[in-house]
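About this split. The held-out portion is used to measure sequence recovery: a designer receives only the structure tokens and must propose an amino acid at every position. Recovery is the fraction of positions where the proposal matches the reference. Here is one held-out target exactly as it appears in the evaluation file.
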């Protein structure tokens, strides 16, 4: 009991961190330096205490942390699925335009970029009921969850967006390997890949049309042949 009391005495940001994580937000070193420093200084104690309370605190060395959950697919909201889609088409567009995905925090996501992304993936986005205005609202949601920060009517991604980027790059690698191993054919087949965001939900097949990457994503559309 005394050991636990000593640990709690050191966790001066316990209430703030718990409220922050329990709201579904990602803590980023860049946007919340004070909270991040407190977490980093007592990382092991915070993780142990939260685990005893039934929460899994994950801390990524790239500068972000979150409460990891294994919610059932039925509990995942349409907004969450749309956020995954919007970030995936952003990465696809930037990759096709030779932008460094590793430097995603440098990108200024403004209305011109959103329009260009929409024009490229119009069919896919409209199938999910998303136009440019809806994409704007989703980026505002990304700000609330700690995946982006607003900047003069535009946005920049925060380190936590690397969770989505990791899966995008893994998917692209699988697709490249599959193409290398496959016999060339005049007809493109629908290769299926599992894309699993552990906190995200109902997975269906869909295609990023221009890149040719086919992936299972979050309740979007059926995969074209």
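Reference sequence for scoring:
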């Amino acid at each position: 009991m005394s050991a636990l009391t000593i640990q709690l005495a050191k966790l001066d940001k316990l209430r703030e961190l718990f409220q922050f994580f329990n709201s579904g937000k990602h803590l980023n070193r860049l946007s919340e330096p004070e909270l991040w420093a407190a977490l980093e200084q007592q990382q092991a104690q915070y993780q142990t205490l939260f685990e005893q309370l039934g929460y899994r605190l994950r801390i990524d060395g790239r500068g972000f942390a979150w409460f990891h959950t294994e919610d059932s697919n039925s509990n995942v909201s349409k907004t969450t699925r749309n956020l995954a889609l919007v970030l995936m088409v952003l990465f696809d567009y930037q990759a096709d335009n030779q932008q460094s995905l590793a430097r995603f925090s440098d990108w200024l996501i403004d209305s011109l970029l959103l329009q260009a992304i929409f024009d490229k993936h119009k069919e896919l986005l409209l199938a999910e009921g998303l136009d440019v205005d809806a994409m704007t609202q989703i980026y505002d949601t990304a700000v609330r969850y700690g995946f982006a920060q607003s900047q003069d009517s535009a946005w920049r991604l925060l380190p936590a967006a690397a969770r989505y980027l990791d899966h995008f790059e893994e998917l692209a690698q699988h697709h490249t390997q599959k193409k290398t191993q496959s016999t060339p054919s005049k007809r493109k087949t629908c290769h299926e890949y599992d894309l699993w965001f552990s906190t995200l939900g109902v997975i269906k097949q869909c295609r990023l049309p221009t890149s040719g990457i086919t992936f299972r994503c979050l309740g979007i559309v059926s995969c074209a042949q």
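Annotator remark: Residues 185-225 have pLDDT under 50 and may be disordered.
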